[in-house]
Amino acid sequence: MKIDIIGDIHGCFDEFQQLTKNLGYDWKSGIPIHPDRLLGFVGDLTDRGPNSLKVIDIVWELWKKQLAVYVPGNHCDKLYRYCIGRNVQITHGLETTVAELDALTQQKADAYRKKFIELYEGSPLYQVLDDQQLIIAHAGIKRGDIGKMNKAVKTFVLYGDITGKKHADGTPVRRDWAKYDNGKAWIVYGHTPVKEARFLGHTVNIDTGAVFGGKLTALRYPEIETVSVPSTMPFVQEKFKTFA
Ligand SMILES: [Mn+2]
Fold first, then answer.
1. How many angstroms separate the alpha carbon of residue 113 from the centre of ligand 1?
2. Distance of CA 177 to CAs 51, 55, 91, 218, Å?
3. Could you give the domains of the chain?
4. Where do the DSSP E strands lie in the chain?
5. 30 falls in which pLDDT band (50, 70, 90)?
6. What are the record keywords, sorted (predicted)?
7. pLDDT in tens, 98-125
8. How far is the CA of 238 from the centre of ligand 1 (A)?
9. How far is the CA of 28 from the centre of ligand 1 (A)?
10. Ligand 1 mean position to 216 CA, how many Å?
11. Peptide bond preceding 222: is omega within 30 degrees of 0, i.e. cis?
């Protein structure tokens, strides 16, 4: 299979559109179409950026037409719980997506909620593709968990290898699982913003912090090449993780 996997978009629709155009996708039908390639999404489509609903709309339509695969991120999980009426805290970026919904008529907002619920419920927590040679999981996955679906796996793929401890600024401590990974299938993930796509063995983090003024990055598979577009958002240095 030939697929272009897109990092965490977080409502940065313009960057997404430009990136797919640069990758040779045609938007004349209203969605990005390539003659022989699919799109993949590592999750965290929404929150913090300016156009979360537009991103939902396009990804839903691609997914519905089987032109895209999607896995949820932690922001998607929370937005899903919001959409089904759970009592979630409208913080950490969800407030921007909710504000977009609140600006619409009830009917239009319901239509977006319905699409997002359908996309979320219709997608697995992680994708195993191309005869198990390609894995897409929002925050990564341990090799031994591939094929399993349980609460611990869900926590890992949504939030990463969290320890339960917190840094002084309140953000969770995450172990650097990719450093110890060793396996043949490609694991493509996002979740932790880095200035450049981070390759370690057969893992690659393609969250280059589009919403924090970095870039939006795609990984072309099976070529294993990255293509990025610069972000139009203000640069927020402290959001980018550097590894020792
Ligand atoms: Mn995330």
1. 20
2. 32, 29, 27, 21
3. 3-239 (3.60.21.10)
4. 3-6, 38-41, 68-70, 127-129, 134-136, 161-166, 172-175, 186-189, 198-200, 203-205, 215-221, 225-230
5. very high
6. Hydrolase
7. 999 999 999 999 999 999 999 999 999 9
8. 16
9. 31
10. 14
11. yes
